[in-house]
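Hello again, I could really use a second opinion on something today. I owe you a coffee for this, so here goes:
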Amino acid sequence: MKRKFIPVKFPNKDFQLVVRKNAYFSPSGQLHSQFREIEIHYFTEGKGTYLINNKLYDVAGGSLLIIHRNELHNIVSVGKSYPLKFYSIYFTAKTFDNFKDFKPYLLKNIFRCRPDFVHVLNMKENKAFEIDYLVRSMFGDYEKKEQAWKEALIVQLVRLVILANRAMSQNPAKENKLRKKEDMQKVLDYIEKNILKELFVENIASEVGLSPNYLSFKFKRALGMNLKNYINARKINEAKKILERTPPEKIISIAYSLSFKDLSHFNHTFKKFAGLSPSSYRKLVLNA
C-alpha cells in the first residue's frame, strides 16, 4: 500500500524549520515538489530508489539526500527486506532571518540548483557517525522544544551544511547509474528533453524500442506511477517555475508553451497535480 504524501507545514512562520522521523515500507506513491523548502534526508537504515527531476538515485543507510525547491521527486522503490528509515529536515531561505550571524556562506551551495549538483552523498563511516548524531539530536531538540531549542537547531543545521559541502568537494558530480532501470532512465531523459512538446506513449515507446503497452507496464512497475501521470506532473512542475517569474506571463501562454490543447485542460491538470489553480498558485508564491 502506497503511503500518502503529507505536505510540509511550518507551525511557526517566524521559524521555518521542521524535523521529521520517517519509516517507509513501500513507495511514497505521489510525485511532488515544494515551492520554497529545501529538504535534507539522512537515511539510517534500508535500501530504496529516489526519483529527483528526471534522474534515479539509489539510497541506503548512510546516504545524505538533498532536494531543492521545485524539484519533482518521490520514493519509487523500497527494498522488500530493507524498509527505509530516515530523518528529514525542511527549511527555507527565511530560516536564518533571525540568526544572520549563523548563516554560513556555504549555504549558497545548498540553495543553488546547478545541473551538476550532487543530490546523494554516501558518507564515509566517520562522517556518517557524526551526521547520524547531528540529525538525531536535531530531532530531539525539535520534539522537546526546551530552552534555546531554536538556536540549538540552527547551530546543528549549520554544522550539517558544512559537512555536506565538504562531502560534495570530495565527491565530484557523477550520474548515479542504476543498471536495472537503464531503459527507464532513457524514458525519463527523453521526456525531459521534449517536455515542451506534446508527448505520446507511442512516440516514447518507439524511441526506446518497446511496445506502448509494455512500456506503460514496465514504467509503472519500476517507478510506481502511470507514465501519462508522470508526464503531466512534470509539465505542471515546469509551469510552476514559469508562474514564479517576473514580469508575469499570461497563463494561457504558459499552457500553450507546454503543448496543452486549451486553457481549460491546463487549468484542470494544474489543479489535479498542484491542488490549486494556476492563478492561486501564483498569488501564493508572490505573497510568500
